[in-house]
Amino acid sequence: MFFSRLNTFLIYKFIFKFTNLTIMKLLYCTILYIIQPVFINKFLFPLSDPWQYYLSSAISGMLKVSNNMKQIDFLELVKKRQSVRCYSNKHVEKEKIDRCLEAGRLAPSACNAQPWSFIVVDDPELKNQVADLTADRLLPLNHFTKQAQVHIVIVIEKANLTSNLGSAIKDKFFPWIDIGIAAEHICLQATSEGLGTCILGWFKEKKIKKLLNVPDKKRIGLIITMGYPKKEEIRQKKRKALADIVHVNVYRR
Ligand SMILES: Cc1cc2nc3c(=O)[nH]c(=O)nc-3n(C[C@H](O)[C@H](O)[C@H](O)COP(=O)(O)O)c2cc1C
Fold this sequence. Notes:
- The protein is of the alpha+beta class.
- Helices cover 51% and strands 11% of the residues.
- It folds into 2 domains: 2-70, no CATH class; 82-227, NADH Oxidase, CATH 3.40.109.
- It has a 4-stranded antiparallel sheet with strand order 1-2-4-3, sandwiched between helices.
- The termini are far apart.
């Protein structure tokens, strides 16, 4: 019984990775949760109770599919992401960092300009030097950054012509908005990987540029600290109430 469940689960996972089609999902679900369990139980594990398994796996399989179709747990991920300012010294796997960077790469940007590049600072000594340049000597700001195993430094790159035109005409510098979105993509992916992050806007930009060989005329927009959180606890979010920030149809003065 255990092996047939495992088998069903693995094949289910494998196939679902490669298809998004609802009909296909239902078809696979029928095969995997109805036909296959019966087959396995009847011929490989004849002493188990195939019909009981047949019913329970069919129902749970269908429920899983309909839940998948309705929503993904995005809001749960958003609630889980928080600024982490206390890290363990556990090594952060390269594959995880790569997936975070991929999430950043796929972020939307004005006119698809993608005006960013990401410097992954994972060399411990260099990372600590960057961390020192994020901490303020007088204010209690960013004194935790050395604990993070990785710093991702977001450099603002040249946008394309249309984005620049839009920025000028509409008096909004889109690249700063763009890198904010990319940064949050990175942080959300990191959260889904079990990693903690903190976006930093406060740091000694000139000195970090010099340290990391970033050309003088470019800007470093943000730095993201990344590592395994020391504590599991998810804090209650302190946010304004929806009623205070949402206007329906017209702006309420
Ligand atoms: C653009 C930006 C700059 C930030 N700069 C810093 C920073 O320099 N140091 C810091 O500790 N947190 C910084 N934060 C994190 C915010 O303080 C944090 O996101 C906010 O308080 C909400 O808390 P949460 O992220 O835990 O939900 C920054 C966040 C953003 C979006």
